[in-house]
Design goal:
alpha/beta; Rossmann fold; 2 domains; 5-stranded parallel β-sheet; 4-stranded parallel β-sheet; 12 helices; about 45% helix; globular
Length: about 240
């Protein structure tokens, strides 16, 4: 049994993770909730949400869960620090946890490379200024962002109420013919149940925050045989 521990801010779409557990054999994904603080997609609030003090909460619970790797399951709470700052954040997390560590922001970079996508479109729920920070992060990683849609949603609570039709509309609107994948960065958004339909709608890989977060933890734990046809191209069985 492979165990990937997640640090997740507040409560919104964390039920995506047990859904992934049921689709992947021999995988445990314990979720430890951190304090979201002010629920706002605003740079200063996001910096505070991802502070070392906030991430330290629940660290002992994660260790007791038997986690083999830990992922900070928050995209905006990592990329808002920039490329170098996000690296410093996960280095501090790895030291505190005594485990390999990463964040959802880096998960997107590694997952895009894994599906062979050098050119991507971004379907973000964030306001334009926060979306621009994610684009800058991806570009620092060497990815070409052909277009980015900013949904303008300012709280995780609102994003968590979105359903299938809203997610489909967001992804379709962001897609561009030249994009090799569409990235959906908000971990507060329910996406796991819709992955096959999202990919069918645009005819290419769709990488979503909760999906890539678990994949990144499995990558860190060197569990490379986990697959499910219900979890999109990223988790497709490699023949």
């Amino acid at each position: 049994m492979t165990t990937v521990g997640l640090l997740y801010p507040g409560h919104s779409a964390e039920d995506d993770y047990p859904r992934i557990e049921t689709l992947l054999n021999g995988i445990r994904v314990p979720v430890v909730h951190t304090d979201i603080g002010e629920d706002a997609h605003r740079a200063d609030a996001l910096l505070e949400m991802g502070s070392a003090e906030r991430l330290a909460v629940g660290m002992e619970e994660l260790r007791l869960s038997g986690a083999e790797a830990v992922v900070w399951a928050c995209t905006s709470g990592s990329f808002v620090r920039g490329w170098d700052g996000a690296h410093e954040q996960i280095r501090a997390l790895a030291v505190a946890a005594g485990l390999p560590a990463s964040s959802t922001s880096f998960a997107f970079v590694h997952a895009a490379r894994a599906v062979g996508a050098a050119r991507v479109a971004v379907a973000a729920t964030y306001p334009p200024d926060v979306t621009a920070l994610f684009v800058r992060f991806l570009e620092a990683a060497g990815l070409q962002v052909v277009d980015a849609r900013a949904g303008g949603i300012v709280t995780a609570a609102e994003v968590g109420t979105w359903g299938r039709e809203q997610v489909l509309e967001l992804v379709r609107a962001a897609d561009r013919p030249e994009a090799q994948a569409v990235l959906v960065p908000d971990t507060a958004l329910h996406t796991v149940a819709h992955l096959p339909e999202l990919e069918e709608a645009v005819g290419k890989p769709v990488l979503t925050a909760n999906q890539v977060t678990v994949w990144e933890g499995l990558r860190l734990a060197e569990r490379r045989d986990a697959w499910s046809k219900e979890l999109g191209t990223l988790f497709a069985r490699k023949e």
